[in-house]
Specification:
This protein is α/β, with parallel strands linked by helices. It has one domain (4-348): Alpha/Beta hydrolase fold, catalytic domain (Rossmann fold, 3-Layer(aba) Sandwich). The protein is 40% helix and 15% strand. The protein contains 13 helices and 10 strands. It has helices at 10-15, 72-81, 108-122, 137-148, 171-180, 187-198, 201-205, 234-246, 254-266, 271-281, 299-309, 324-327, 329-348, and strands at 25-26, 30-36, 44-51, 56-61, 86-91, 130-135, 153-159, 220-221, 286-291, 313-317. The strands form 2 sheets. The chain has an 8-stranded mixed beta sheet, with helices on both faces. Helix 11 (299-309) links the parallel strand 9 and strand 10. The relative contact order is 0.16. One of its GO terms (molecular function) is hydrolase activity. Residues 85-328 form the AB hydrolase-1 domain. It holds the Pfam family Abhydrolase_1. Keywords: Hydrolase.
């Protein structure tokens, strides 16, 4: 295994033969830029894509400072390999990627309203139709969406997230973590700090186990080399993804990151509001996942969310970091798939809530 000191630097990652293939060219079934938030400080254009054409509607909500292609493992699995069963919506939250980045106060509830406008635009309006997965800040947006339209939620997966950000360490440690998010740093330091915050060291050192698209994958553009390559370690793949995002100076801007960070920092759902979500969505339709090695949103946040929400499935995963859909991609995908099946079965049985 490679040690921390042996991990390749930015220049070495950029020179890696697999770097140009880091972001897969997965062709969406539908895509667009929808002007949202008219009358709410907009219009704000939100860039979205739907992958697959199946009857089961899946929504993937990304976290702080991250773009929709970070869901590419899930997009590949649900929207391409199983695109006849699922339709998967991915999008860039306001402030990131190809969406607009207005300098204004963001909130998780306003961002949920942005998403709701996309869903209405797509005609995804039926009762119990939406299978929603949100990670980190995306999980906060998912809570807000479920609070607004509980009757439309088929299943709700809250991953590495919180009802509200609380200080679960010492005051100085907490302040240092928050301040360091905004301190200017070299690209090398930015990538290594992100890796440390988001993943367990054990996973970063393991060989890259990504299942990449092949020429048999539906609706994928194969690179000129004839195949999508892999990296030596998980750290290298993460670093390549992080660099592809950070070097997109139009897509990744500090103002958008700061506005999103404010939204996440001020997110708040009370115990009573979470109980209401549980009552109206139905607890058997809800899953909470959190890892014990989460350095971004510490595990007490996940425990409290489970305690207050009382989801049908609540898992504290030993040794896992913040980004389940990468670090535990197979476990994550299997768990989400099982929640979708439970939600679909509950809907067919005519169960709108389970108290």
């Amino acid at each position: 295994m490679e040690s921390l000191s042996q991990r390749p630097n930015v220049a070495e990652i950029l020179a890696h033969p697999s770097y140009p293939d880091t972001i897969w060219k997965l062709t969406p079934t539908q895509s667009g830029q929808l002007p949202v938030a008219v009358g709410r400080g907009g219009p704000i254009k939100i860039d979205w894509e739907v992958h697959g054409s199946g009857p089961i509607k899946m929504i993937w909500i990304m976290g702080l400072g991250t773009v929709k292609t970070a869901w590419q493992r899930q997009t590949l699995h649900f929207g391409h390999d199983n695109g006849d069963k699922y339709s998967s919506l991915i999008f860039d939250n306001r402030g990131m990627g190809k969406s607009d980045k207005p300098l204004m106060r963001y909130s998780t509830s306003e961002m949920a309203k942005d998403l709701l406008e996309i869903l209405d635009h797509l005609g995804w309006t039926a009762e119990r139709e939406l299978h929603v997965s949100g990670v980190s800040m995306g999980g906060m947006i998912a809570q807000e969406l479920a609070y607004m339209v509980p009757e439309r939620i088929g299943s709700l997966n809250l991953i590495s997230t919180a009802a509200a950000i609380e200080n679960t360490t010492t005051f100085l440690e907490n302040m240092r973590t928050r301040v360091m998010m905004f301190v200017p740093k070299t690209l090398d330091r930015a990538v290594t700090d992100a890796a440390r915050m988001l993943f367990s060291d054990a996973w970063l050192e393991k060989p890259d186990d990504t299942i990449v698209p092949t020429s048999k994958t539906p609706n994928v553009v194969i690179p000129p080399s004839g195949h999508y390559a892999t990296f030596t370690t998980n750290y290298e793949r993460f670093a390549a993804q992080e660099l592809s995002k950070r070097l997109d100076l139009e897509g990744f801007q500090k103002k958008g990151f700061m506005m999103q960070a404010i939204a996440a920092g001020w997110h708040h759902k009370s115990k009573k509001q979470l109980e209401e979500i549980g009552d109206k969505v139905g607890r058997e339709r809800i899953m909470v996942l959190h890892g014990t090695r989460d350095n971004m949103i510490s595990v007490p946040h996940g425990r409290k969310l489970i305690e207050w929400l009382k989801p049908g499935v609540g898992v504290i995963r030993e040794g896992t970091g913040h980004v389940f859909m990468l670090e535990e991609w197979k476990f994550h995908n299997d768990m989400v798939e099982s929640m979708v099946e439970k939600g679909e079965e509950a809907t067919k049985a005519g169960k709108s809530v389970a108290l």
